[in-house]
Amino acid sequence: MSSGGSRARGRVPLMAGNWKMYKTSGEGADFVRHLAGELGVANDREVVVAPPFTGLASAVAAARGSSVKVAAQDVFWQAEGAFTGEIAPGMLTDLGVYAVIIGHSERRQFFGETDETVAKKVRAALDNGLLPIVCVGETEAEREAGAMEAVLSRQVPKGLAGVVATEAGALAIAYEPIWAIGTGRTATAEAAQQAIAFVRSQVGAVLGEEAAESVRVLYGGSVKPDNIDELMAQPDIDGVLVGGASLKVETFKRIVQFNEA
Fold it and tell me: Does residue 104 have an active-site annotation?
């Protein structure tokens, strides 16, 4: 599989599926085995699925020896303690988890996630060898008010507050316009490119130009097989964070096997 421009820039495409609160442990393991068999060797891109916490161990076991890697959907920033219901970074690495989604809009909207807690989680993930996938993005009201850049220029620097420039290649940022998540509405490829280029510029402002060129920036928000090729052809889009379309092997496989124009 060719990865075109992203590969040429040294930023390996990252194709991630966020299962949210779907799939039992057994269903997730079956999915991973099926997907791994369909993909075969995919060493020119990273393929990641993010099951619920209860499915992590079985997904990691099913993915062993394949091209599929496993991410968690959240993490806490403390190593241990009296934090009922939370999961420490070391607990994830102990299972063989590769990455963790941090600051998803649903965590911000429903569970009180803030830019400050995102920064703590990013730091903890990096310290424990996990790849943070840091989510940023504006609401529909913010976009209509022309505040997209204002939102991103707050979320990106604050989320990366504990990161040093040399670590930029060890994390990813997912731009997810909240108005496009689960709605069937997708930013045009050009609009996604514009926003992601701005995200990259914010990384540059905080960590420097070299860091901005090494960080992978993903697009998320109603990604489907019929728009993946156009999205991945954009110069600054290094991958996707997929929701609903990652729940079926055939649709996610097509997304993973994008064909750049």
Answer: yes
Annotation marks residue 34 as catalytic:
no
Could you tell me the two tokens for 231? 């999205």
Helices (H) and strands (E) counted in the chain, each on its own, are 12, 8
Write the DSSP string, 145-172.
TT-HHHHHHHHHHHHTTT--GGGGGG-E
Domain 4-256 classification at class level: alpha beta
Catalytic residue among 46, 104, 106, 230: 104
For 81-137, the pLDDT digits (tens) are 999 999 999 999 999 999 999 999 999 999 999 999 999 999 999 999 999 999 999
| Res. 178 pLDDT band, cuts 50 70 90 | confident
Taking the C-alpha atoms of residue 29 and residue 66, their distance in angstroms, rounded to an integer, is 13
Q: Between the CA of residue 21 and those of 28, 115, 210, what are the distances in Å? A: 11, 23, 37
Residues 142, 167, 176, 230: which is the catalytic one?
176
Q: Report whether 151 contacts 138 (CB < 8 A).
A: yes
pLDDT of residue 3: 39
Per domain, the residue ranges of the chain are 4-256
Q: Is the pTM of this model over 0.90?
A: yes
**Cβ-contact 108, 142 below 8 angstroms:** no
